[in-house]
Amino acid sequence: MRRTSFRAVTVATATATLIAAGITAASAGTAAGTDAPDASRYAPGLVAAMERDLGLDTAEAIDRLRTDEALSATAHTLIKSLEATSLEKQYAGSWVEGDELYVAVTDKTAAAQVRAAGATAVTVDRSLAALDRIATRAYEAAPEADVASAYVDVESNTVVLEVAEGAKAAATKAVRAAGVPAGSVSVVEVAEMPRTFINVIGGNAYYIGGARCSVGFSATGGFVTAGHCGVRGATTSQPSGTFQVSSFPGNDYAYVNTGTDDTLVGAVNNYSGGTVNVAGSTAAAVGATVCRSGSTTGWHCGTIQALNASVTYAEGTVSGLIRTNVCAEPGDSGGSLLAGTQAQGMTSGGSGNCRSGGTTYFQPVNEALSAAGVSLITTGGGGGTPGGCSGEESAFSGSLSSGGQAAEPGTSGFTSGSGTITGCLDGPSGTDFDLYLQKVSGGAWTTVARAITTSPDERVTYTGTSGTYRWVVVSYTGSGSYTGGWSTP
């Protein structure tokens, strides 16, 4: 039996110091008094690719980039806020439409919190967690050979199950027999089944025997790419390396360790004579603009249609993927998906092509980095190794995998008198690390202060009474080493 995990997915982007204000600023467009929009802050070729693939003019493309960035940041902080107030079970997904951020919830209290943040609340019947469970049941119930993909459509609050032509009736019957709630799943036939984008002809990028794939993102000691490009122990050329981690099917990620003579650069080829810098790996929202780079078709853009999708290839099932309407072709496998300068994932497979358009799925990059135990190489060639917090009396350090947490300076904590406690955290570049201050109260640890921006670096200032305290470092996304420090009254 196939075992597919549809995990609840959150969205994020670069910065979220203001919530409602960020939404207002995003719709400002070109500044008053200027004759033309300024594209200089964006990577060469990025705006041009959006104009070509999305039918936008320069001003519209720049306005969309600004809007997507601000709205995705708001969604990221809002989801964290729901989690902090134990309302995460009511979350049902979020998406960007024009200059509006929509957040679906199943609870009136959660809806009020969404509106207070400046977003539009949509009250629905099913939470994202419930939809994930429905997707799993529907996906496993349908005949495996007929299933193309399954994903949660957050806008309709339903699950979409894609099947081969002529298989709709059988799949619908199987889903119904599995006890899936009526009206929760739409079965759709597709003209072409997805396939992995690997090619046996020569070209740029890197090679595995007679096959060609594309580099995803530079990481500590090598790069991440698609798992279907090579098994563990396989060797590559141009650049030369060895697959040290590979997972496919189930997942579709791999890590290739390269030689010491290779220069690892935190950038992506835009196939317009330049590169796009990689600043981090914070996930973007459904509906956000993304662009893909691959060695067959170059640089193409589109939007995120769904998160945590599952796909059936001839080789088996892959789950937890990003679904997009960006085109791709064989040989693009393993290539980079970016939202602005934020790494999103590596090309897995899909259907269609770049002449008529298509659907492409991407393996999220943070899962690959965490599995390999490496850090993303970001702008300037850095590997994500943080510096220390300066000016504090005491220090701590450690490392985390994505989603992990650690108590500092240990589970027993430290004592402090009445007054102001300050603390700082310096996390790996390209990650989202958070810092919590907890105090013993009634025999249990209770959070009294926190810093949960989208940055890897955080700072907390808290004024309280004497007692026993501790810091908790949490990796919201990304992995790597961190340092921190604190001072007591």
TrEMBL record:
A GO cellular component annotation in the UniProt record: extracellular region
UniProt key word Disulfide bond: yes
GO MF term set: serine-type endopeptidase activity
Classification via InterPro entries: Pept_S1_alpha_lytic, Pept_S1A_streptogrisin, Peptidase_S1_PA, Peptidase_S1_PA_chymotrypsin, Streptogrisin_prodomain
GO biological process, one term: proteolysis
Region annotation Disordered: where it falls in the sequence: 383-415
Domain Peptidase S1A alpha-lytic prodomain positions: 126-182
Pfam name, any one: Pro_Al_protease
Keywords: Disulfide bond, Hydrolase, Protease, Serine protease, Signal, Zymogen
SUPFAM superfamilies tied to this protein: Trypsin-like serine proteases
Secretion signal span: 1-28
Family statement drawn from the similarity comment of this UniProt entry: Belongs to the peptidase S1 family.
Protein name: Serine protease
Lineage of the organism: Bacteria, Bacillati, Actinomycetota, Actinomycetes, Micrococcales
